[in-house]
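Need residues for this backbone.
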């Protein structure tokens, strides 16, 4: 888990196109993902204790929108919002999307990202530390979690998605999946 390599940024042309995309589908997907994570990894949010009531602004600086995470135990939420529309939050985590995905997937160390200023933390740093520790403890793989949301189609989709994720990761340099563990067949 090092930060020796340069962290790629989301392509500007892609970010420009996303500026005009509707956020409702992304918010629905985010809400479904948060609910699925709560069911599949119940300790992820319960481990936060009193921090579970906090609101986290996840700010991928190379995208034209942000995410508001409310990790409430039993009813977690994740919404996509336009920049400037996030309202009140307790903690903000900002950095390139690739840095955030790499941290979640265990490729980058959160402390190293913070000290190299690739990741910016504002507000309740204790809440951010609790969230990072909970994610690290559960070894979350967001691609795998998205495939699990397909329900009965999961077994059919797992292998093609795993191969596509590996290809995208090699092409882009972004850790779109956790690579050290094998997915179940």
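Answer:
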């Amino acid at each position: 888990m090092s930060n020796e390599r340069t962290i790629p940024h989301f392509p500007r042309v892609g970010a420009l196109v996303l500026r005009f995309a509707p956020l409702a589908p992304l918010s629905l997907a985010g809400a479904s993902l948060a609910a699925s994570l709560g069911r599949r990894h119940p300790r992820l949010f319960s481990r936060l204790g009193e921090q579970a009531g906090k609101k986290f602004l996840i700010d991928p600086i190379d995208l034209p929108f942000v995410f508001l995470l409310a990790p409430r135990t039993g009813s977690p939420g994740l919404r996509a919002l336009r920049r400037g529309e996030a309202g009140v939050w307790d903690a903000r985590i900002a950095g390139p999307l690739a840095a955030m995905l790499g941290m979640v997937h265990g490729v980058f160390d959160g402390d190293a990202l913070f000290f190299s200023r690739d990741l910016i933390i504002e507000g309740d740093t204790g809440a951010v530390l609790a969230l990072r520790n909970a994610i690290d403890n559960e070894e979350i793989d967001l691609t795998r979690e998205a495939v699990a949301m397909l329900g009965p189609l999961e077994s059919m989709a797992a292998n093609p998605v795993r191969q596509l994720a590996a290809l995208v990761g090699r092409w882009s340099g972004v850790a779109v999946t956790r690579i050290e563990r094998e997915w179940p067949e």
